[in-house]
Design a protein that fits this description.
Length: 419
């Protein structure tokens, strides 16, 4: 019955039967405007004269960097602390917040707030690209309609995914984001408002400095590896499918690449690039040997685009077979209890690296007084969510390493009793 009235728009109810939404089961919102007003406290920076002196630095950080500290949430929602975990869950569900996973000296959680992000100058974007290797660039063409809200929800999804992949902090701005994919690759998302209305996706290798401080240019002419490009494309496909299906189904988009004849036109003084710039469908380029250019009415060879991406390579197949042979090697409750005693106050950070939402961690923090109990229930919750295809020990080892717990990471990567 509650779901029926929610579908009608009479109430707001997201309890459902999903175990992940367990603490939303008892929350029914009769007045949607009340929820909007509660969210506005977070995504709207309070006027300077109304800010408490003890909170001014936190307000400044929210306004200038788009970063929200958990203690400031307690201040904003001082009259709603019992409902805080459920409200944070809703804000994460709507992509209004994104937890940060970077190593923190203080024992607190912080969040990115997309509504408070500041613009990034073109010079900053240019400098970042100049500090990288030869890029692979493709576009997501929205055929004339791309809401700001959709792009910034995509930024939140990319921030969550990239932090879990690399453990590195992204750089988020209004209509722009830069993310670390792995030790060798970065990628950027940029919303372009001109014709065509699209998202520009740039993937590039990271340039490194040698021990004597000299930049190593050995791979500057190399494109990113096809596996990295395919990972980013697959992530974007899944994220956009989810967002458009659950939120704004009328939006149409397709993955595209810039037609090579655009480069020829750029050398012509009289060419008007915004009018001449046009795209080719990426999917066509990956399956056809040549494709007809829309601008010059000429045929374009697609071999270069095929080199950017791959379906499956032998190395990846071997990795997948090894994982399937090894299996999940499920962890026992005793092992999880022993680990809980080892990780101490790092349990929050570990939970985030294992993919748990910050609101779940906040709930565990409130429900259990002892640190070891908090860590144990966090590990149990994570372990219960795994599927038969997941490699629990590999996932745990990777997350422990990102937390700086190297010895524990090595143990779970190569347990003494594993034969």
């Amino acid at each position: 019955m509650l779901q029926f009235y929610h579908d009608l728009g009479t109430i707001i109810y997201f309890g459902g039967e999903d175990k992940a939404n367990q603490f939303l089961q008892d929350m029914v919102i009769l007045n949607p405007q009340w929820l909007i007003d509660i969210f506005k406290r977070i995504i709207t920076v309070m006027p300077h004269q109304k800010q408490w002196a003890t909170q001014k630095n936190k307000w400044r950080r929210l306004k200038e960097e788009g970063i929200l500290e958990d203690s400031l949430i307690d201040h904003m929602w001082s009259d709603l602390l019992p409902q805080k975990p459920a409200l944070l869950t809703l804000m994460e569900m709507f992509d209004l917040l994104c937890p940060r996973l970077e190593a923190q000296e203080e024992d607190t959680l912080t969040y990115y707030v997309p509504a408070c992000l500041q613009p990034c100058s073109e010079e900053e974007v240019k400098q970042e690209l100049e500090a990288s290797g030869k890029p692979v660039t493709f576009y997501i063409d929205f055929q004339g309609f791309l809401p700001d809200g959709l792009f910034h929800r995509l930024l939140v999804h990319a921030a969550r995914w990239s932090q879990q992949q690399s453990g590195e902090e992204p750089q988020l701005y209004f209509r722009y984001g830069s993310f670390t994919l792995d030790d060798e690759h970065n990628f950027q998302l940029e919303m372009k408002g001109a014709d065509p209305i699209c998202i520009k996706v740039t993937i590039c290798k990271v340039l490194v400095l040698s021990p004597d401080g000299v930049q190593d240019n050995s791979n500057i002419e190399d494109h990113p590896c096809p596996k990295a490009c395919s990972m980013v494309r697959t992530f974007l496909t899944h994220a956009l499918n989810e967002l458009t299906y659950t939120w704004i189904r009328g939006v149409k988009y397709e993955f595209s690449v810039a037609c090579p004849c655009n480069d020829l036109q750029s050398h012509t003084p009289e060419a008007d690039l915004p009018k001449c710039f046009h795209l080719l469908q990426l999917e066509d380029c990956l399956v056809k040997a040549k494709i007809k250019c829309k601008g010059k009415k000429m045929w374009v060879a697609t071999e270069i685009f095929k080199k950017w991406f791959h379906r499956k390579d032998e190395e990846e197949d071997e990795d997948e077979i090894a994982v399937l042979k090894r299996g999940i090697r499920a962890l026992s409750d005793v092992e999880l209890l022993e680990l809980a005693g080892e990780i101490g106050t790092s349990w929050k950070k570990l939970g985030l690296y294992l993919g748990l939402r910050a609101c779940h961690i906040a709930t565990l923090n409130c429900d259990h007084p002892l640190t070891e109990d908090k860590a144990f229930h966090m590990l149990i919750h994570w372990h219960e969510k795994l599927s038969q295809k997941d490699n629990a020990r590999a996932m745990l080892s990777k997350a422990l390493k990102k937390c700086g717990l190297v010895s524990l990471s090595e143990f779970y990567e190569n347990p003494k009793d594993a034969e």
